[in-house]
Amino acid sequence: MGFRLELETKAARAVGRLSRAAGRGGGTTLPGKLLWKLDPGAVDELAAGLARGVALVSATNGKTTTTAIAAKILGNRARLAWNRAGANLLSGIGSALLSAEDPELGLFEVDEAALPEAIVRTHPRAVLLGNLFRDQLDRYGELELVAERWRAAVASLPEDAALVVDADDPVVGDLAVAREGVLRFGIDDSRHARPSLQHAADSKYCMRCGSPYEYKAAYVGHLGDYRCAACGHARPALDVVARNIEFRGLWASRFRLVTHAGEVELDLALPGLYNVYNAVGAAALSLSLGASLSEIRTGIEDFSAAFGRFERIGASGKTVVLLLVKNPAGANEVLRTLELGGIPPVLVVALNDAIADGRDVSWIWDVDFEPLLAKAGTIVVSGGRAAELGLLLLYVGLTEDRLEVVPSLEMALDRGLELTDSRASSSSSPRTPRCSLCGESSRDGASSPRTGRRRGEDPGRTPLSGLPQHLRRPREHCRPLPSRGAQGARAGARGRRSR
Q1: Number of C-beta neighbours around residue 186 at 10 A
Q2: Where do runs of H (alpha helix) occur along 156-205?
Q3: Are 355 and 365 in contact (CB under 8 A)?
Q4: Which of 24, 212, 270, 421 has the highest CB neighbour count under 10 A?
Q5: Per-residue pLDDT tens digits for 286-321
Q6: Where are the alpha helices (DSSP H) in 377-423?
Q7: What mean pLDDT value characterizes the chain?
């Protein structure tokens, strides 16, 4: 490291320490932003100094969990620089490189839009590409645009770079067609397939001829065993695959990992089919970096949860299960996992539209809440878009006596705990008396809707009778989209139910 870069990194690290000491943040992005301002080429130089190179992970859903599982596996092989808090832009990668102590291997989850630049800057030794779903249309545009950027980024990879792809995704699997030595992962267990392709599935048409895919098994959204009857384009053979999958409520999963190096039974302390995808992807990436099946088994079985992803938090003698959803495919899988594992009698569901998460929340209308409503008791909705979420739940069949609108997230959590006390005897699982589903983010940074509160009512609660009338007209209650890229986003957001 040159003298100039050493001074720059010391200054950036000092800023991170000050940020944490002042309680202004975790120092996960600010040091990287400062470093970029001081020296735009610093991230490149720091990444080049890693003895074992860099591995990048990108996907719409699951990249934080996949990277965290990979870190658990690879952390015993090398000292890691890892953006564990999920800061996945270039500033977050820079901050992770600054905060690591003498790292050997860089392991970074990367935002879908930032992936092309991250590849140019870090010259990765391995890249894992997971699923692509419709997400943050006001920021990314349609997923076909992201796929084209990814295609160009893959073409720029050197021949000796390992590429790992989720072959169950038709779009992502197609990115690897022109490369040799690709590791393709997926799931092969038709017992857990959906009865049919969901209405909110995205990549339903053939990448080659445009005809509809036929699915032998549809697992998560459009992920599955697909084939085009018109031209024959189909899911390729899988190199790393999960079979014999078993779920254990809201607590764990078990599956057999099948690879060219052998097979192994794995216990994963996370529920849900989408978390099996995350674990298999992490295993495939680790194999590409030289990990053994024994190391993969130890890492996966020692893993608990990534931040906010089925994270369990103790509160007043109870357990709060925190989940993050941010698009229709992810939300539907979380709801499916809750339905299979046992829906708690009290749910807190928060919906926000902070800049970092995307202003356009129209995707929430594509989420299939109906199965949840048949079994849930009381649902407390919260966040900056609580009123819209409450309206949606009423439209799909929730009765007003089972819905409470509490825009303040802190008050909503308190209310959820209070309701749990009164309903504890009816809880399907005493260890999971309540779940908090956080749409987009758990941050409560947006302004609350007008409440029309009556005198003497709880200031933290919005009675349904007090909601403004415009919130009962679904096409008039959404905030306008940002001007930048808005035309394409509006075009993609209109008529989603007709897709």
Answers
A1: 26
A2: 170-174
A3: no
A4: 270
A5: 999 999 999 999 999 999 876 667 777 777 777 788
A6: 386-395, 409-423
A7: 80
Question: Are the C-beta atoms of residues 30 and 41 closer than 8 Å to each other?
Answer: no
C-alpha span between 333 and 47 (Å, rounded): 36
Beta strands 126-129; 54-58: pairing state:
parallel
Tokens of 302: 């020692």
Tell me the C-alpha distance between 112 and 124, whole Å: 16
E-strand spans in 326-433?
346-351, 378-382, 403-405
Q: Are strands 183-187 and 240-248 parallel, antiparallel or unpaired?
A: parallel
Least Cα distance to 422 among 345, 360, 363 occurs for 345
Confirm if 454 and 467 have CB atoms less than 8 A apart.
no
The pLDDT-based confidence of 417 (bands split at 50, 70, 90) is confident
Stretch 183-188: mean pLDDT, rounded? 98
In the chain, where the domains are located: 3-302, 311-498
311-498 carries CATH number 3.90.190? yes
The residues, any chain, with a CB within 8 Å of residue 52's CB and separated by 6 or more, are: 78, 104, 105, 125, 289
42: left (phi over 0), alpha (psi -120 to 50) or beta: alpha
- Distance between CA atoms of residues 15 and 21, nearest Å: 10
Long-range contacts of 314-318 (CB under 8 A, 24+ apart): 315/413, 315/417, 316/417, 318/417, 318/420, 318/433, 318/434
**Amino acid letter, residue 82:** W
Residue 466 has pLDDT above 80, yes or no: no
Distance (Å, whole) CA 169 – CA 250:
26
Strand runs labelled E in 153-287:
162-166, 183-187, 213-220, 223-228, 240-248, 252-259, 262-268
Cα 155 to chain center, whole Å?
25
Compute the 3-state secondary structure of the chain and give helix, strand, coil in percent, each to the nearest 5: 40, 20, 40
Q: Bigger pLDDT: 478 or 322?
A: 322
Rg (CA), the chain: 23
Nearest-5° angle of CA 57, CA 95, CA 485? 65
What homologous superfamily is domain 3-302 in, according to CATH?
Answer: Mur-like, catalytic domain (3.40.1190.10)
Q: CA torsion, points 301, 442, 60, 267, in degrees to nearest 10?
A: 10
Question: What does the pLDDT read at residue 182?
Answer: 97
For residues 96 and 81, what is the distance between their CA atoms, to the nearest angstrom? 6
The token pair that represents 323 in the structure block: 């989940």
Size of the chain in residues: 499
The tens digit of pLDDT for each residue in 350-406 reads: 998 877 667 888 889 999 998 888 888 899 999 999 999 999 999 999 999 999 999
- Angle made by CA atoms 242, 438, 403, in degrees to the nearest 5: 120
